[in-house]
Amino acid sequence: MALRLPRPHRFDVCVAVTGLLCGVLVWALGLYSNPGRALPGAWVLAPLAVMSVLELMRRTRPQLALSIGTVMLIADQFTRGNIVTVTMYTDLMYAAALYGSPSAARRLPVTTGLVTVAVTIGFVAWWRVPEALLIGFVTGVVSFAPAATGALVRSHRDAAETARLRAEQTALLAEMDRSQAVVAERSRMARELHDMVAGHLSAIAIHSTAALSLDDPVTSRDALGVIRENSVEGLAEMRRLIGILRDSSGDLEPAAAPTLDGLGSLVDGARANGLDVALDTAYGPLPTPVELAAYRIVQESLTNALKHACPGRVTVALAQLDGSLTVAVTSPYGDRDGPRAPGSGAGLVGMRERTELLGGTFEAGPEGPLWTVRATLPVTEVTEVTEVTEGDSA
């Protein structure tokens, strides 16, 4: 199987052809760099031709081209010499440092520098004339200068590539952060939408089912009143949420977010929907995120009790102790008679997410005859606890 060499780059082909034509032109004009050599002038074409072919390999096989080119440069010194052959050798040295292996790029400037110093010292010691320094200077121009230039260009190129990769990684990380922020914001708005509207819609569904199933004008009229009240409140909540979404300032959350001061109104609404609720609280001033999470957990727990709980008392208890606020809501658990609103499980997921975002713990499930929702929310600043107790339902 024949060895297939890589196809040379178009620029390398141009360099090879141009070098060959210029070298032939210099030879035709009789311009030699070593006119005193004994070999006839036509011998300069042999190193020139080989050096031109090596230019085709300057990018694909730079180290092999430099090795053969060094031999051709030495051979050119036994002829009358062609300056184009020397020029193409400097290009091979530059290409070997630029396109060769990393170790070659590091090694060539050092090697050529040592060769330049050795040649300079050797000829000065041999000839013992100042003109011998010119031999060392020419050696440095032909070998060390292109090698150092190639290594320097390669270093800048690698640095630019590293900077480009770092910029791409930074852009990728920024896009990942943006995507995560979008997902987190969508989750937050989904929780807010569910908590704001689910309770009202559940009450509407239950009371409309009761009105349809009971042929009693008084019951139907009461159910329609509850339905209207929940519809108006749900519409107001929706408008407030839409206002938050449309506002570009990004600072409407504190003004629109409910606090624990609204627990009384929340419990009164649950009682109006038919729940027997007892409220027992003991807490002091709390950070806004903790208040919002506690309010939403109580709100969603009352919504679930309205949809699924059996007849009986629902207890809401909030207690602040040892740097944390504990929210516990219990409701009768078992088979329920009468209309039941469908559930999707999003409420429990939302309560768990709210709790975990604050670094707390959440659990929900049956405990004997009761269904218990319990969340423990860390409080960064423990303040003096005030007690408010409301035991009986109105």
Mean pLDDT value:
82
- How large a portion of the residues is in β-strands, by DSSP E? 5-15%
Based on helices, strands and strand pairing, what is the structural class? alpha+beta
Which stretches are low in confidence, meaning pLDDT under 50 for 5 or more residues running? Answer: 251-255, 381-394
Fraction of helical residues: 55-70%
Largest sheet, in brief, is:
6 strands, mixed
Any idea what the shape is?
rod-shaped
Any overview of this molecule?
A hairpin with a 2-residue loop joins β4 (361-367) and β5 (370-378). The protein has 11 helices and 6 strands. The protein is rod-shaped, with a radius of gyration of 44 Å. The chain has helices spanning 10-28, 45-55, 62-76, 83-99, 102-127, 132-213, 217-246, 253-256, 263-272, 288-308, 346-357; strands at residues 276-283, 313-321, 324-332, 361-367, 370-378, 386-390. Residues 251-255 and 381-394 have low confidence and may be disordered. The protein is an alpha+beta fold.
Index terms:
11 helices, six-stranded mixed beta sheet, rod-shaped
TL;DR of this structure?
This protein has 394 residues and is α+β, with helices and mostly antiparallel strands.
Give the SSE layout.
Layout: H1 10-28, H2 45-55, H3 62-76, H4 83-99, H5 102-127, H6 132-213, H7 217-246, H8 253-256, H9 263-272, E1 276-283, H10 288-308, E2 313-321, E3 324-332, H11 346-357, E4 361-367, E5 370-378, E6 386-390
Parallel strand pairs: 1-2
Antiparallel strand pairs: 1-6, 2-3, 3-5, 4-5
Helix pairs in contact: 1-2, 1-4, 2-3, 2-4, 3-4, 4-5, 4-6, 5-6, 6-7, 6-10, 6-11, 9-10, 10-11
